[in-house]
Design goal:
Layout: H1 2-8, H2 10-57, H3 60-63, H4 66-78, E1 83-86, E2 98-101, H5 107-115, E3 120-125, H6 134-140, E4 144-146, H7 151-164, E5 170-173, H8 191-199, E6 203-209, H9 211-214, E7 229-233, H10 244-260
Parallel strand pairs: 1-7, 2-5, 2-6, 3-4, 3-5
Antiparallel strand pairs: 6-7
């Protein structure tokens, strides 16, 4: 009798975990659509308005950073995404840095803004200035838009970055210039390293893991996939001089360090089509 019973139900035992996983994904997607999305839109509008008004009233260092930090932290927590941060002990609160990070996906913004733990300015694409409310908020917060339409406009962006990097204020740049399509590291552009060389500032490499799995570039504006996130803040790389050799050194060392901390699945260079 027991043998017969065992033979009748083996398929239920095999498929049960898959069914639970499917139901879990469905419930998470419903939660994201019905609860997270409305709250995220509301929080985004409020953050943009508070940042814009606060910066224009005064104390731009506070209003240009903390509303965005809280918005990012809130978004990550609302989605129940586990975050692990390593390496904050490498940073000196009085030192300005140029942070360079791999760019795995849209959630890189939330992870760095919410969990880096340092007041900083973004160096971002000129096209982001056109996003309603967000573009104005970024302008008010004095984040730096890179306009590549002419050498004069590029120089203006560099001059703005130069004025920003003092008294412990730092800059965050994605040297790949675009999000990856594959999760792998692409080619680095030299702008961040040339700036660090000119100002003789340390470069801090940052490795992001998990963001590509949460929402890759190929799945923008679709469902968020639950996945663990990790932000690794590496030891600062100090200048070894000034000029071309130093710029090359900072770039090569940063690339090596960031690549070395990626999970094995995304190790190795894969070219990005729009780089």
């Amino acid at each position: 009798m027991s043998n017969t019973t065992a033979q009748r139900h083996p398929k239920h035992t095999i498929h049960h975990p898959s069914f639970l996983a499917l139901m879990g994904t469905l419930l998470y997607d419903l939660y994201t659509l019905c609860i997270v999305l409305p709250l995220f839109i509301l929080a985004s509008i409020l953050t943009a308005l508070i940042t814009t008004v606060g910066c224009r009233l005064g104390n731009g260092h506070f209003w240009g950073y903390y509303p965005g930090k809280w918005w990012s932290w809130f978004t990550i927590r609302l989605l129940f995404l586990p975050v692990k941060v390593e390496g904050r002990e490498h940073l000196d609160s009085k030192q300005s840095y140029v942070f360079v990070s791999n760019h795995q996906g849209a959630f890189d913004i939330f992870l760095i803004y919410g969990f880096l733990g340092r007041n900083f300015k973004w160096m971002m694409k000129q096209s982001l200035r056109k996003i309603p409310l967000v573009g104005k908020a970024c302008e008010a917060a004095h984040h730096i838009f890179v306009d590549k339409r002419s050498a004069a406009k590029i120089k203006k962006s560099i001059d703005q970055a130069r004025q920003t990097l003092h008294n412990g204020m730092s800059l965050v740049i994605f040297p790949e210039g675009a999000r990856t399509f594959t999760g792998h590291l692409g080619v680095f552009k030299r702008g961040a390293f040339m700036l660090a060389d000119e100002l003789q500032l340390p470069i801090v490499p940052v490795t992001i893991n998990g963001s590509f799995d949460v929402m890759p570039r190929t799945r923008d504006l679709k469902w968020v996939h639950w996945h663990r996130l990790k932000l690794t803040i590496h030891a600062p790389i100090m200048p070894i001089g000034q000029g071309t050799d130093n710029t090359k050194f900072l770039e090569e060392q940063s690339y090596k360090v960031i690549m070395g901390s990626l999970v094995p699945e995304y190790q190795g260079f894969v070219p990005n089509p729009d780089q």
